[in-house]
Amino acid sequence: MELRFILPLAFAMLTTPASAEGEATTALKDARAFARASEFEKALERHEWYHANALNVEPSQYGVRLSFALSYWKQLGDKYPPALASLTALRDQGTQAALDGKAAPELFHDVVSINRTMKEEAKSVPLFKTLVEKQPDFAKKCFRYMDDTLVDAGELELFEKYSGDLADYLKRKIDHHVNLIRMIGARPGSERSVKSFEEKLITMTITLSDYAVKKGHADLAAKLKQMTAEVIADPRLAK
What we know:
The protein is mainly alpha-helical. 75% of the residues lie in helices and 0% in strands. It has helices spanning 3-15, 23-36, 40-57, 62-65, 68-79, 81-99, 105-117, 124-134, 136-142, 147-152, 156-163, 166-184, 191-214, 218-229.
């Protein structure tokens, strides 16, 4: 699973007691159990129920629903084509709803997350660009779900249009990173996750710094690297 999947759900997972298992959690466990038993039709039914109902019965499932749950659904689809067809249809319906102006930002988040799960993130970029052109107010609300994707796609001018001041944006990312590491750092076996989170922040910082240089803002580029270097010691931030 890619790191971008893990970040949105980290707080919810870390603050939910392990013993607190509700209807949605049970449904997801059922889906996995059915898949392991090769009862694929039942597994798909539980995945579909979970995705449609999880937030109504367990709001804390927001992050899990768009990360691990979608990953498990895609794994089922790799073995059972109807599951992949179902997931694709869900994505396509959400895409059309967004284009028709009938979607909430959270539904757009569903679409972006499914595209990421299916390794079709490139489809999210033109969708967002269409929203920027035809539904600018809605696009602004959806940016929070697209920022990493736009950076990864090299769409930095569009990214900057919605991110605002790059230093302010990076400061928010750094604050989020520090809080996240504070929560998970003391947990046994967290070293790998911490390293991955650090790598993500470093990569984004370097990308934004390089972009600032291209725009003729060398001082800003140096500032961005210095900001991240204050929380992560890495020689790449000194270049």
